[in-house]
Amino acid sequence: MSRQDLALANRILANEGVVDAFGHVSLRHPDRPGHFLLSRSVSPELVTPDDIMVFGPDGQAADGDTRAPYLERFIHAAIYEQRPDVVAVVHSHAHDLIPFGVTGTEVRPLIHVAGPLGTVPVWDIADRFGETSLLVTNIEQGRDLAARLGSGRAVLMRGHGGVVVGDSLRAAVIMAVYLQVNAGLDLKARQLGPVRYLSDGEVELSFDAILAEVPARRAWDYFKRRVDTHA
Amino acid sequence: MSRQDLALANRILANEGVVDAFGHVSLRHPDRPGHFLLSRSVSPELVTPDDIMVFGPDGQAADGDTRAPYLERFIHAAIYEQRPDVVAVVHSHAHDLIPFGVTGTEVRPLIHVAGPLGTVPVWDIADRFGETSLLVTNIEQGRDLAARLGSGRAVLMRGHGGVVVGDSLRAAVIMAVYLQVNAGLDLKARQLGPVRYLSDGEVELSFDAILAEVPARRAWDYFKRRVDTHA
Amino acid sequence: MSRQDLALANRILANEGVVDAFGHVSLRHPDRPGHFLLSRSVSPELVTPDDIMVFGPDGQAADGDTRAPYLERFIHAAIYEQRPDVVAVVHSHAHDLIPFGVTGTEVRPLIHVAGPLGTVPVWDIADRFGETSLLVTNIEQGRDLAARLGSGRAVLMRGHGGVVVGDSLRAAVIMAVYLQVNAGLDLKARQLGPVRYLSDGEVELSFDAILAEVPARRAWDYFKRRVDTHA
Amino acid sequence: MSRQDLALANRILANEGVVDAFGHVSLRHPDRPGHFLLSRSVSPELVTPDDIMVFGPDGQAADGDTRAPYLERFIHAAIYEQRPDVVAVVHSHAHDLIPFGVTGTEVRPLIHVAGPLGTVPVWDIADRFGETSLLVTNIEQGRDLAARLGSGRAVLMRGHGGVVVGDSLRAAVIMAVYLQVNAGLDLKARQLGPVRYLSDGEVELSFDAILAEVPARRAWDYFKRRVDTHA
Q: How far apart are CA A105 and CA A107, in angstroms?
C-alpha cells in the first residue's frame, strides 16, 4: 500500500459519505516503527499523494514537515500505539453513526457484510474530560478513546462520529463503509420489531467472507469505480 | 437475450442500488439444458460481456473455464434446477430488504408495479444450517433457499439480501428494482397506520400491467437510459 | 406552451422523481376544443417533441396517429372533460405519495410552496371497480377519478400514485414536485408531534406567492437547470 | 469577500440542498453602512456575480437598480439593522427544517459541527401577523423575525424554512449546511431514545473548533469542490 492508495482511500471515503469536510484515514508506516501516514489538514475529497505527511508515535510531524496537520491526529497515534495489529485507521464522520452515539446505543451487526465489526461501543469524551469541543486534541484523549476501542474493530464517538480500524487499508475502508450502512439499516429495522443481529459465531465466520483477499479486492475495485465515474 | 443484455442487466441493477459491491444476476442458458450464464467474480457495476461464464447444473464452471467464480453461484444452480419456468435470477443486496429479513417480516406488495411479487417470505439460513457466514456456499444451502422460494417470485435472505426470479431477464430485473422500492415504502406507510396491500386478485391482474411486452420494454429502456446518463 | 415545453416538462418530472419508468404529463390543446397533447408510450425521461401525439375527448388518438399510446390516457381525457379550467395534468408516480394512499391518509400542506394544493383526497379504484390492475384503463374509471378530484388541484391514487392539475403547464409541474416534497416532510413531522398545517386562509394566500408569473418562472428555470446539469 | 464569493455561496447552498428554487444569501456591504449585497430574483443555483444588487437599510434597491428583487429581501434588511455583528445572512429552504417548525420543536445541536448554532427557536409569522402567504414581505415582518432570532445564530420559520447568520459569509454558509444536517439527525436519533445534546459549555467550545480560520476554510474548500465536480 502506497501513498497513492491512501489518497484513493480518502476519495473513496468521501464519495461514500463516510467523511465530509472533516474526518480522515491513516496508514501505519510500512518501515518506520510507530510512525504513520496521514494527510495534511485538507478535506479527504481533495487529498492527493503529495498531501501525505509522516507522523511519529507522539502524533508530531516527522522529518521537519511544517505543513498544517489535522488537529485530531492523536486518534491515530494512540491507536497505533495500543494496537500493534492495526494497519489502518479511519476517523469516520458518517452521519448515520450520530443517532447511536448521542443516545448511547451500541451498533450491532445485522447485515453480513458488517459482521466483522462485532458490537461497536460508544465513547463519550465527557466521561473523563468534561466539557470539550468534542475533538480529540491530545494524546491522553486519544488513549482514552483507544482504550474504549479495546481489541475491537470500531468505536463510536458521541456527537462526533467514530473510528474504524483494520489489519489492512482495504479492511478499514470497507468496514467504515459498512458500519454506516449497518447503522442506517438498524434504525429502519427497529421500526418493524425486535431485530435478530448476527450471533457471535456468525460474526466470527463473516471475517473471511468479507475481508479475505477476493471479496476485499472486489469491494475495493467497486468503490474505486464509483470514485472514477463520479468525478 | 445475449451476453450483452446480461452485462447491461448487471449495470442496471448496480445503478438502481439493487446490488453494490456484491450481488449478481444470471440467465438460463438458451441452448444447454441445466446450464446458466453468470459473471466471473467481479462487482456487477464492472461486468462486461467478456466476464460472462457458463455454469453447469452442479454450479461448476463449464468448458474448463478457470476464472474465479462467485462463491454463491449455488443460489442460481439450485433455482434453475427446481424451477423450470425461471429464466433469470437476481441475487439482490438491496439495503431496504434487510430490515424485513432481520425482523422476520414478509414483504407484501402495496404499489401496483410490485404486484407480481406477491407475498415475499423470509429464509433464514440458520434454521437448517446453524451458524454460517450467511453466504450460500453449496448446493444444499441453495436448494433449501429454493424450497423457501417455492413457486414464488422472490424470497428474502435474513441479514443478507434476497432473490428475485423471472420468466425473462427483464422481468427479473424490473421486479428486483420494485421489490426494494416496495420495501422502502412499506416502512414509511406503517408509520401512518394499517396498510392496505394489494389483494390476491389485484396481484393476479398486475402481471400483465407491468410485465407484458410493452410496459416491460418501457421500464427496461428507462433503466438503460439512467445507466447511460449516469456513466 | 409548445411541444418543446411539454417535452421539457417530462424531463423535469423525471429528474425530480415525480415520474419514473411510468407516469406522464399532458397539455390541453391550445386550439382544438376537448383535445390534448400527450406523449406516445415511452418513459418521461426519454420524451422528445416528436413523441407528442394529439388525443380527442374520448382518449383516442387523433389524426390517424397509430403509434402506441399510454394505456392510462383516460386520466387526462376525463379531467379535461370535467374541468374546463385545467390546462395541464400530471399523472404522478412519486414514491412518497404511496404511504398516504395505502393508508387512506389525506395529504395536507405544511410547507408554503405546497399551499395551493389544499387538502389532497385519496381515490381508491376498488371502491367502485373492485379488483383491477390499479391502472385507469377506460373513460369510466377516469371520470370516477376526476369526480374525486372535484374542484381540487390534486388527488392520490391508492397503491399507484396521484394526479396534479394546473391552469398552466408550469403550475401543474411545480405543484407535482411540491406535493411529493410535502408528503415526505409530513411523514417526518408526525414523528415530532401534532403538525400545524396551513390554514385555509394561508392556503388561499399561497397561490400568488408560488404560482404567480415571477415565482413560477423562477421555479421552472431552476428545474430546467437541474435537467441541463444532470444530463 | 467579493461578489464572486457571494455567487459561489449561492451555488454551494443550492448544491447542498439548503436552498432550492427559493431561498437566498446576502452579505453586508463592506463599505456602505446599512447596505447589503443580494442577488436579483433568480434561483440560487443560477446566480452569477452580475446578478448581485445593492440594497439599502429599508430593503429598497440602491443606485437606481430596477431589476426585480426578491420579495423577501426584508429578512436581510431587518437582521442587518438589528445585529451589527452579522456579516452574512442565509434564508434557508432546507427541507429537514420543516418538521421542526410545523411542530414547534426547537432544534438543538447534537453533532459538534452544529454546536455554534446553539438552540434554534421557532418563529411563526401567524403569531403577530395572522394569516399570510408565510412570506416575509415587509420590514415589520422582518423585524419581528429578527427579534425572535435575538442574539442567536439561527431561527426556524414555521412552514417555510429558516434563517442562519454569521460573522462571515463562510460561517453563515457552513452553519446553514450543518443546521439541516443536525435537524435530519435529530429526527433519527429520537427513534432510539433520549438524546444527549451538546451542553452549554460544549456549544461554547465548538465555535473555534468549526468556525476558526483553518476549519472554516477547509469546509468551504470542500463545498466548493462539490460544486465544481457536480456541475
A: 6
Chain B stretch 159-218, residues whose beta carbon is closer than 8 A to a beta carbon of chain A: 159-160, 187, 190-191
- Residues D157/D101, Cβ–Cβ less than 8 Å: yes
CA distance C199 to chain D (A): 8
Contacts (Cβ under 8 Å, ≥6 apart) of D73: D26, D38, D55, D59
Residue C101 has pLDDT above 60, yes or no: yes
- ipTM of this predicted complex? 0.95
Catalytic choice (A16, A45, A72, A204) = A72
Whether the predicted pLDDT of C231 surpasses 70: no
Nearest CA to B151 out of B170, B168, B165 is that of B165
pLDDT at position C179 over 80: yes
| Locus of grid cell 494512540 | A78
Rounded to an integer, what distance in angstroms lies between the CA atom of residue C161 and that of residue A169?
Answer: 46
In the predicted model, what is the mean pLDDT of residues B160-187?
98
For residue C86, the distance in angstroms to the closest alpha carbon of chain B comes to: 27
pLDDT value for B230? 77
Burial B182-213 (b: 16+ CB within 10 A, else e): bbbbbbbbbebeebbbbeeebbebbeebbbee
User: How far apart (Å, rounded) are the C-alpha atoms in residues C10 and C38?
Assistant: 10
% pLDDT > 90, chain D: 97
Cβ under 8 Å to D: C residues 140-159: none
Residue A218 amino acid letter: R
Q: Which three cell numbers stand for residue B73?
A: 453461484
* Number of Cβ pairs < 8 A linking chain C and chain D: 100
Q: Which amino acid is at A34?
A: G
Under 8 Å between Cβ of C74 and C5: no
Instruction: Supply the pLDDT for residue B192.
Output: 97
**pLDDT value for C2:** 87
Three-state SS annotation for chain A: CCHHHHHHHHHHHHHCCCCCCCCEEEEECCCCCCCEEEEECCCHHHCCHHHEEEECCCCCECCCCCCCECCCCHHHHHHHHHCCCCCEEEEECCHHHHHHHCCCCCECCCCHHHHHHCCECEECCHHHHCCCCCCCCCHHHHHHHHHHHCCCCEEEECCCEEEEEECCHHHHHHHHHHHHHHHHHHHHHCCCCCCCCCCHHHHHHHHHHHHCHHHHHHHHHHHHHHHHHHC
The confidence score (pLDDT) of residue B139 equals 97
**Ramachandran bin of A2, using left for φ above 0, alpha for ψ from -120 to 50, beta for the remaining angles:** beta
Let me know: does D25 contact D9? Beta carbons within 8 Å: yes
* Residue D2: predicted pLDDT: 87
Residues of chain A falling short of pLDDT 70: 1, 231
**What residue type is assigned to position A192 of the chain?**
L
8 A C-beta contact, residue A155 and residue A91 = no
Contact A223 B191 (CB under 8 A): no
Residue B15 DSSP SS3: helix
D166-219 pLDDT, tens digit per residue, is 999 999 999 999 999 999 999 999 999 999 999 999 999 999 999 999 999 999
Share of chain C above pLDDT 70, in %: 99
SS3 B178: helix
In this structure, are residues D83 and D153 in contact, taking their beta carbons and an 8 Å threshold? no
Q: CB neighbours of C199 closer than 8 A, spacing ≥ 6?
A: D126, D131
d(CA A166, CA A117): 10
What are D120-162's pLDDT values in tens digits?
Answer: 999 999 999 999 999 999 999 999 999 999 999 999 999 999 9
**pLDDT at residue B229, as a whole number:** 87
Angle CA C199–C203–C208, to nearest 5: 150
What's the CA gap between A204 and D23, in Å, rounded? 51
